[in-house]
Write a structure and sequence with these properties.
Chain lengths: 120, 106
C-alpha cells in the first residue's frame, strides 16, 4: 500500500521560503507524476504543480514565479519550495500521486496534509 | 483557466436518501472530470475519474455521469459515512482546477 507523508516546518515568516518534503513508502516514485495541492483553512483546493520522476516539472501559473518542485529518487522523496510567502499562503499542503501516468490528476494517493501558517 | 461551479453549495439529506451533486464547467472538459470526497481534517479521497469510472475500493452506490460541461455525482442511498464535502476536478487543460465543493449534511 502506497503511503505519502509530508514533513517540514509548520510556521514560516512572511517573505521567507516555505519548504516541505513528501516521503513515498510502499511503492516506487518512478513512472508517476507527483503533485502538491493546497487548501487554505475553510476553503477549496488548489493545484500547485507536479514533478515527474525524471525531474520534469509543471506549475500553476498563479504560483509559477515562486514555486520549485524537485524529486530525489534515491530517497523516494519529492519536495516543494514556495518563496516570498505571505499570509495568503497559509494552508494545508498535500502531496499526492497522479493516477496511472496522468499529469493533471486525478490523484489516487494523498498524504495526510501539513498545515503551514505564515506569520511573524 | 477552466472554472468549475458546483451546486448546490449545501445538500441536506437523511441516510438512505439519494444525493445528486452537480458540477458545471466554463468550457468543455470532454470526459476528464473527477470527483473527490473530503471529510473534516482528512485528505481528499478519489471517488470517480474520467466522468464515470469508480476508483479502487469505491462502493457501487457512487456513480458519475455527464459530458462536456455538465456532470453529476450520484450517491444512490446515503450511508452515515457519506456525509462530507465533495469536489469535482478537471484534468482536460492546464492548470487542473477544482470546483468550490458541495457539502452533504444530515
Amino acid at each position: 500500500q502506497v503511503q505519502l507523508q509530508e514533513s517540514g516546518p509548520g510556521l514560516v515568516k512572511p517573505s521567507e521560503t516555505l519548504s516541505l518534503t513528501c516521503t513515498v513508502s510502499g511503492g516506487s516514485i518512478s513512472n508517476y507524476y507527483w503533485s502538491w495541492v493546497r487548501q487554505p483553512p475553510g476553503e477549496g483546493l488548489e493545484w500547485i504543480g507536479y514533478v515527474f520522476y525524471t525531474g520534469s516539472t509543471n506549475y500553476n501559473p498563479s504560483l509559477k514565479s515562486r514555486v520549485t518542485i524537485s524529486v530525489d529518487t534515491s530517497k523516494n522523496q519529492f519536495s516543494l519550495k514556495l518563496s516570498a510567502v505571505t499570509a495568503a499562503d497559509t494552508a494545508v499542503y498535500y502531496c499526492a500521486r497522479g493516477l496511472r501516468a496522468y499529469t493533471y490528476g486525478p490523484w489516487d494517493y494523498w498524504g495526510q496534509g501539513s498545515l503551514v501558517i505564515v506569520s511573524s | 483557466e477552466i472554472v468549475l461551479t458546483q451546486s448546490p453549495a449545501t445538500l441536506s439529506l437523511s441516510p438512505g436518501e439519494r444525493a445528486t451533486l452537480s458540477c458545471r464547467a466554463s468550457q468543455s472538459v470532454s470526459n476528464y472530470l473527477a470527483w473527490y470526497q473530503q471529510k473534516r481534517d482528512q485528505a481528499p479521497r478519489l471517488l470517480i475519474y474520467d466522468t464515470s469510472n469508480r476508483a479502487t475500493g469505491i462502493p457501487a452506490r457512487f456513480s458519475g455521469s455527464g459530458s462536456a460541461t455538465d456532470f453529476t455525482l450520484t450517491i444512490s442511498s446515503l450511508e452515515p459515512e457519506d456525509f462530507a464535502v465533495y469536489y469535482c476536478q478537471q484534468r482536460y487543460s492546464w492548470p487542473p482546477t477544482f470546483g468550490g465543493g458541495t457539502k452533504v449534511e444530515i
